[in-house]
Amino acid sequence: MSDKFIWEPNDELVEQSNVNAFMKKIGVDNVTDLYKKSVENIEWFWSEVEKELGIHWFEPYSDVLDVSKGIPWATWFVGGKTNIAYNCLDRHALGEKKNKIAVIWEGEDGSIRKASYEDIYQQSVSIALFLKEQGVGKGDAVGVFMPMVPEIVSVIMAIARIGAVFVPIFSGYGSGAVATRLQDSGAKVMFTADGFLRRGKVVNMKEVADEAADQSPSIKKIVVFPRLGIDVPWNDGRDVRWDDVLSYKGDCPAEALDSEHMFMIIYTSGTTGRPKGAVHVHAGFNVKIAQEVYHNFDLKDNDILFWFTDMGWIMGPWEVVGAMTVGGTIFTYEGVPDYPHPGRLWEVIERHKITILGFSPTGVRAMMKYGTDHVKKYDLSSLRLLGSTGEPWNPEPYKWFFYNIGGGRCPIINISGGTEVGACFLAPLPIIPMKICSLGMPALGMDIDVFNEEGKPVRGEVGELVCKQPWPGMTRGLYKAPERYIETYWSRWENVWVHGDWASVDEDGYWFLHGRSDDTIKVAGKRIGPAEVESALVNHPAVQESAAIGVPDEVKGERIVCFVILKPGYDPDDSLKNELKNTAAEILGKTMVPSEIYWVKDLPRTRNAKILRRVIRKVFLGEDAGDLSSLENPAALQEIKKIKKGS
Fold it and tell me: What is the reported pLDDT for 172?
């Protein structure tokens, strides 16, 4: 193996991979040529992809791509009629895969349930008939505020089946955040549950749903799934029991929908302003997501895909739509990875023989504090690929994940895209060698580049990550905010999507991310990403995790301030601070040494484990933190506020 790479594929893996079969079919010999052809003729490429995936068209499309309204408003598979529910569910449930397990679920209390494609199909038909009786039709929004139980998949497919619009809402939100999404989308019906378990405690959902619905006049009915079987407040005029919904029987074929018919409005949370509703459509989202799961994650018939996520984050719909389009099996989990004991996640992998695991870098860093004894208790040999997204990696956590969880056998398919992207900008194929922390290459069919401040492509230096051509999975604007969409993504350079990430490409053509461009710190005229500072600190054996921010400085423009979580057994004293500063100086140079280091017990983060650096900065500076609906751990923010008061 080359010293450049931490992992290289063997001949058997390459030969048996889905992407290799695709290359043979289209007459391409290697990955370099495959990517080149995929962006030189995007219409040809995406047409070949949808055929490879077996996408069903009730009516064929006349053109692959239409940019007559401008690149930002590109439409795909023009004139075609299709339906995500048919492609993900019906064609399997009504065919040879009807008895195949589609979803495996485990609750925090150890409950396990499985649902076949036919089970999901039958439930989705009943739910669809209920929705139609409530007057829900094409284009009407339906809020889904549920835990990750198998039934959530049935609900999604029912909504898509009738051409209504799926509005996923993170299961841990408070009533205000739920109401904002219901109000903005104008949802007529909301699906929820009585509650779920988190760290051994009941998280009440019905009460939150009621408060949100009271603020949302468009909501006419709330359907309640009995996850826990507990008593909840009941409104006979508005609330509907899950079993009553399943009592609806009859036929409800999937509607033949225009390729651009809205499938989903999924909201992102920013640090300022209202959440942005990214709009995704039936054909483009389906094709792009399924292509990634099939080619980048090499999903095969006997695989079980488990992405540790919630349906309110893009990786939830990604997992469902991607895996089920190709007839695969997904695994969903209710609780946290380290409860009731630090080895719970690894225990789950052994019990269900998970083959593909997706986990965030932040999640890995959090699990490292428990050491490897909790890992070694379990047989993780079923794993064959690891996945990650959400944040840039640091080398030590990357290697810990690769060696301790993947056993040095499994490539880390490190991907990056976004809610608005509807997929990935960067995504390595499992048949290329992997470098530590790298994202490998641009995703197929994605014309990705790195621009400097003048809008010129650069290599070997950090610049803005951009996309120069449209793609099928791109958001069709922000719901009810077209001007905001253009301003956010398309206003810097003409017909170029600017994503807000810092990226670089090394001498071997491998791609790396360096954090959000608006998180970048500029010290004495020199820019540095927070990930570089954090990686330097994590190199010290005492540091479990850190967050770096830039704050105003009269002399340097900005100075670096770091918040550090220590591993057990280390004393948070001034001598250790000096050690960390020396470590940073050795790696980054004296200019980039943190001016201040603060000890914290936790860092503010979202449920999908992204560290909220911009929020940390605003709170530390005493500014308005903005929208905090995605904040998982408010106590961590209070700790930052106390530091601010004491500084």
Answer: 86
Name the percent of the chain lying above pLDDT 70: 98
The reply to whether 110-255 shares the fold of 11-87+260-303+311-449 is yes
What are the domain boundaries of the chain? 11-87+260-303+311-449, 110-255, 520-646
Query: Do 260 and 287 form a contact (C-beta atoms < 8 A)?
Result: no
Least confident span in 108-122, 497-511, 578-592? 578-592
Token pair of 438 as six digits: 């790298």
**CA 243 centroid distance within chain:** 31
Confidence of residue 591 (pLDDT cuts 50, 70, 90): confident
Architecture of domain 110-255: 3-Layer(aba) Sandwich (3.40)
CATH (one of 2.60.40.1640, 3.30.300.30, 3.40.50.80, 3.30.420.10) for 520-646? 3.30.300.30
pLDDT above 60: residue 273: no
**CATH class (in words) of the domain with range 11-87+260-303+311-449:** alpha beta
Structure tokens at 390: 């959400």
- CB contact set of 272 (below 8 Å; sequence gap of 6+): 624, 626, 627
- Residue 646: predicted pLDDT: 65
C-alpha separations of 369 from 420, 501, 533, 546, 607 in Å: 33, 28, 20, 13, 19
Instruction: Report the alpha-carbon distance of residue 429 to residue 410 in Å, rounded.
Output: 13
Q: Which two tokens stand for residue 560?
A: 């670096």
